[in-house]
């Protein structure tokens, strides 16, 4: 195996975090900002890319790998956490919004998982975090979440997070599943996927759904989320009362009522 072998434990239900146990000199790599807590004896270091060494040697190889990550909306940098002590140490990472954390052993999925661009949370050092381009660039540019996806490659553990409830579905050869592009979390590499426009202009404009959906064809395994963060954010923003200045009024609160009574703007 090329990846570090790590042990883990999931905590919580709807607001989960994963606790990873590191033996001496074991390392886990994670997205910047996902750390929740870590024990004394763990060294933290910021690196270009994912530190897997699969992006090529030298400065240009590292820059190319980090540059591809920018296309997915992620940072140029990632953070490694290494146990530099003598005994076992623990480091924990939390999901950024309500949902589930899915542990994936890449060795059980032919060494590759394709996931949505903001799903990756952490992985054993050695897992390569790259970019998976949709083959038809024309539909990709207009397909929202379906265009640029991340690929996780290696033979170790990786952790992805998604919103709401997660449904894992195994597709049989030739079986087709159409999914809202925001609801697709991840899929195995053998799944054939494409982005298609919703047929019928009236359906697209007045049906309350997006203009595009992902068409997945088996064989393979797919993971679907019930609550994409984009959908959650749009509902929260739409429900928030707005003041003429653009801020939230906070109606219904005692302090808001007193503020209005005293002539506050």
Automatic annotation (TrEMBL):
InterPro entries: AIM24 (IPR002838), AIM24_sf (IPR036983), Trp_RNA-bd_attenuator-like_dom (IPR016031). Coiled coil: none annotated. This is TIGR00266 family protein. Gene3D superfamilies: Mitochondrial biogenesis AIM24. It holds the Pfam family AIM24.
């Amino acid at each position: 195996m090329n990846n570090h072998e790590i042990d883990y434990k999931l905590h919580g239900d709807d607001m989960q975090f994963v606790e990873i146990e590191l033996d001496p000199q074991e390392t886990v790599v994670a997205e910047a900002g996902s750390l929740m807590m870590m024990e004394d004896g763990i060294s933290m270091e910021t690196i270009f890319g994912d530190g897997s060494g699969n992006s090529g040697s030298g400065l240009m190889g590292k820059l190319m790998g980090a540059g591809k990550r920018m296309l997915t909306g992620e940072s140029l940098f990632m953070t490694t956490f290494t146990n530099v002590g003598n005994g076992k140490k623990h480091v924990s990472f939390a999901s950024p919004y309500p949902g589930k954390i899915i542990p994936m052993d890449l060795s059980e999925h032919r060494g590759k998982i394709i996931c949505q661009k903001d799903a990756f949370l952490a992985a054993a050092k050695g897992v390569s975090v790259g970019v998976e381009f949709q083959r038809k660039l024309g539909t990709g540019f207009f397909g929202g979440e379906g265009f640029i996806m991340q690929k996780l490659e290696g033979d170790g553990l990786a952790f992805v997070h998604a919103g709401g409830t997660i449904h894992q579905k195994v597709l049989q050869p030739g079986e087709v599943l159409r999914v809202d592009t925001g609801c697709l979390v991840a899929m195995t590499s053998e799944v054939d996927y494409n982005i298609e426009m919703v047929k019928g202009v009236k359906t697209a404009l007045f049906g309350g759904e997006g203009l595009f959906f992902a068409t997945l064809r088996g064989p393979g395994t797919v993971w679907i989320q019930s609550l994409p963060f984009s959908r959650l954010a749009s509902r929260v923003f739409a429900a928030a009362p707005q003041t003429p200045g653009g801020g939230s009024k906070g109606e219904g609160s005692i302090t808001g009522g007193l503020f209005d009574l005293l002539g506050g703007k």
